[in-house]
Amino acid sequence: MTATTDLAIEPPPDGQGKLAEPEQARRKTPIPETVPYSSPGVHRTAVAIFTGVPMLALVTAIPIAWIWGFLDWQTVVVGIVFYLFSGLGIAMGFHRYFTHGSYKANRAFKILLGIAGTMAIEGPILNWVSDHRKHHKYSDKDGDPHSPWRFGTDLKALTKGLIWAHMGWLFERNQTSHQKYSPDWLADKDITLVNRLFPYLVAASLLAPALIVGLWTMSWRGALIALLWAGLVRVSFLHHVTWSINSICHTFGKREFDARDKSRNVAWLAVLSFGESWHNLHHADPTCARHGVFKGQIDIAARCIWAAEKFGWVRNVRWPEEARLNGKKVGEIRALGGMTKRNVADSIGS
Ligand SMILES: [Zn+2]
Ligand SMILES: [Zn+2]
Fold first, then answer.
1. Which ligand places an atom closest to the C-alpha of 259?
2. How many CB atoms lie within 10 A of CB 48?
């Protein structure tokens, strides 16, 4: 069973015991799952621009390189640093921390994770977290925002479903309700500020690489090449890696754990996704901080959480518990890797 049904949290009481009467009345009306975007046309145009322009850069980067010349090594360095920063912001931050609460972070690290994830340009933090909590609540059933099984199981339906799960769902007219799915973060002023700063962080994510490489090489050409590769191409590449978790990792790959959905573990995406593609384990044990739990299953985000724990930036990390996972394993018996609570006594003692 997944533990995420409890993630659709109703807003907590305001702390004083008895609720005010209008509040009582409001609680009697269920909070809707979704709310329409105030301007669906504007939303769709923005999604088209923020996914389409980087994708255009991705597919034209090589031909453009014939004309402008290939990458400077400075652009490669800055591109990799921004990929790590924004990708870990999604894997460690938006996903394992903000959505699932796999660990607790201190305030500075929480804000850093929020900024890093926003710079992946996958939507404002409250949208991302709310959509993903709804995905777990209904995974591969009616109500899942991005199941590839939405249209059926035959080849034609599944092909359509894969396109929907990969990026079609981003153009939906309704937004998953923040009030219903993210009341915890709605009550956090730091995070609502990060949410509001989305447009500025988008600009920073695209322009900062150009500025850094432009100053580093003291050339406009260097700045433009960095804007293309370390800005747009990097963002689009990371988009497709994240979206592949929704499409590929719910369709193809190994099923190593019992989960109530069609999630799969996909080894070839593990390094690029920082360990997010061990998605079958994630659905079997959603609050677990480590997704690649078997020996040899590379999980860079888990290793970074481990390092952050050593530095004292995060605490109460929910490392995999051998006793719990043993009951969920299917197929051949495989040994769990390190960073694992070996038995129940360990987990109680920590
Ligand atoms: Zn998740
Ligand atoms: Zn999933």
1. 2
2. 12
